[in-house]
Design goal:
The complex is a heterodimer of chains A (213) and B (231). Chain A has six helices and ten strands, in the order E-E-E-H-E-E-E-H-H-H-E-H-E-H-E-E. Chain A is α/β, with parallel strands linked by helices and 213 residues long. In chain A, helix 2 (88-98) crosses helix 3. Chain B is mainly α and 231 residues long. Chain B has a single domain (2-230), classed as Orthogonal Bundle (MetI-like fold). Helix content of chain B is 80%, strand content 0%. Chain B contains ten helices and no strands. The chains are: A alpha/beta (213), B mainly alpha (231). Chain A binds chain B through residues 49-51, 68, 71-78, 81-82, 84-85, 94-95, 98-99, 142-143, 146, 152, and chain B through 129-130, 132-133, 135-140, 143, 147, 150-151, 229.
């Protein structure tokens, strides 16, 4: 999915916190947004994910304005993802359930993701009781399982151990050919390993500049 | 001191003697309070969830009013309902005063702000997170609503139990609008107040034990649900 941001402005309590003139995130490319804490990276991701309103400008998704149907192809994983009540399995199963996917294929698909993220041993455990790292894995598996066209990740390596970060790297490298990925991270190795382009959201919060890897 | 122990002994005898009047009062109390809580739930759940999940003009002011209504003195509320339902009042033609319907109206007005405020207070932050998560996973409005209710069911249940406990233990308002008429509008709390003033301690204690038992049962159910989902 191609994302084009034109003359976007976002204010918070009458203060301009985002001012993006023109940025294009091309289809099936991976972008990293860097910047200091509080520079507006999460706000930008949430605006692209249609979770937050902006005040001026426009965002085009495949050259069209946001339509409710697009939400089925966009996913956002926050730094502290919300985990639903129920088991780990239930959490990962949820996006497939609402898409009414072929029931016979569902179970295998969920098990494949449980196994990949090495959380199969806790599949029947209450998800809310899991550790922070396990919760991040659940959220990632839950968001990746329906193969979104646009994947927005807000510091996905938070709470993950080195091995899990490598796993995440591998799966992102695998899916990046079919998915546009925009992520926020402070981990240099992770950024360099998976991003095609990097942007810096300057702490003036006004402009977004491109920077080569 | 003896009158207390004698009262407790007589109370148990009264409970197990299946006294008709006693059980009619219990059933009427349960009917009035269950009906009032049910009506309050129908009003409070959508209102509380809507307020918790939406930003709107005067939200802070509306919330303040709602929280203030939680502490509304029942006697004042009873007086208000009495004046509205009195023969010369705006709704006097319906002749609801001194009927169980009047008591239900009073309890609904008393309980609705409590349930709504509890839902608003407990669900505000969590609801936004649930909605955002559901949206980013591709859920439509109906699917989000279903998920939201499932996720906050513990808080809804806590609000329900708090509302019901408030309704069933209410005395001032139901005394004013119900009139404590024997066989018509006499409920557990007004029964206790009346018998206590007449020196019938056994009857007061018996009904007090029933009230405490009911309260214990409902709170135990709530505790069970909270433990089941939270710990």
């Amino acid at each position: 999915m191609k994302i084009e941001i034109n003359k976007l402005k976002k204010y918070y309590q009458n203060k301009l916190i985002l001012d993006i003139n023109n940025v294009v995130f091309n289809k099936n490319m991976t972008y990293c947004i860097k910047g200091r804490n509080g520079s507006g990276k999460t706000t930008l991701l949430q605006i692209i994910a249609n979770l937050m309103l902006y005040d001026k400008g426009e965002i085009l998704y495949d050259n069209k304005l946001m339509h409710y149907e697009f939400m089925k192809d966009i996913t956002y994983v926050s730094q502290n993802p919300y985990i639903f009540n129920g088991t780990v399995y239930d959490n990962i199963y949820y996006p497939l359930k609402i898409r009414k996917s072929d029931a016979s294929k569902l179970e295998n698909k969920v098990y494949a993701y449980l196994e990949y993220f090495e959380i199969d041993h806790i599949k029947n455990q209450l998800a809310k009781k899991c550790s922070s790292g396990e919760k991040m894995k659940i959220a990632l598996a839950r968001s990746l399982i329906f193969k979104p066209k646009l994947l927005l990740l807000d510091e996905p390596t938070t709470n993950l151990d080195i091995e899990s970060i490598e796993k995440l790297k591998a799966i992102l490298l695998k899916i990046k050919k079919q998915t546009t990925i925009i992520f926020v991270s402070h981990q240099i190795d992770f950024i360099n390993a998976i991003s095609d382009k990097q942007f810096i959201l300057k702490d003036t919060l006004l402009e977004m500049g491109e920077k080569s890897v | 001191m003896n009158y207390i122990f004698d009262g407790i002994k007589d109370a148990f005898e009264l409970i197990f003697s299946l006294d008709k009047e006693l059980y009619e009062i219990i059933l009427l109390s349960l009917f009035v309070s269950f009906t009032a809580t049910f009506i309050s739930l129908i009003i409070s759940v959508p209102t509380g969830l809507m307020m918790a999940t939406h930003e709107f003009k005067f939200k802070r002011f509306t919330s303040k009013i709602l929280y203030s209504l939680m502490g509304l003195p029942p006697v004042v509320l009873g007086l208000f309902v009495f004046l509205i339902l009195a023969r010369n009042g705006p709704l006097g033609t319906f002749q609801l005063l001194f009927t169980p319907s009047a008591m239900i109206i009073a309890q609904v007005l008393l309980v609705t702000p409590i349930i709504t405020s509890l839902i608003l207070n407990n669900c505000s932050d969590i609801s936004k997170e649930i909605i955002s998560t559901c949206r980013t996973l591709g859920a439509n409005r109906f699917e989000i609503l279903i998920k939201l209710i499932k996720e906050v069911k513990v808080y809804l249940f806590i609000a329900l139990v708090a509302g019901f406990s408030r309704a069933i233990s209410e005395v001032g308002a139901v005394m004013i609008v119900g009139g404590n008429i024997k066989g018509q509008t006499r409920v557990m709390t007004t029964f206790i107040a009346l018998n206590n003033s007449q020196g019938n301690y056994a009857k007061s204690i018996a009904m007090g034990l029933v009230l405490i038992s009911l309260s214990f049962i409902f709170n135990s159910i709530a505790y069970h649900y909270v433990i089941g989902d939270k710990l």
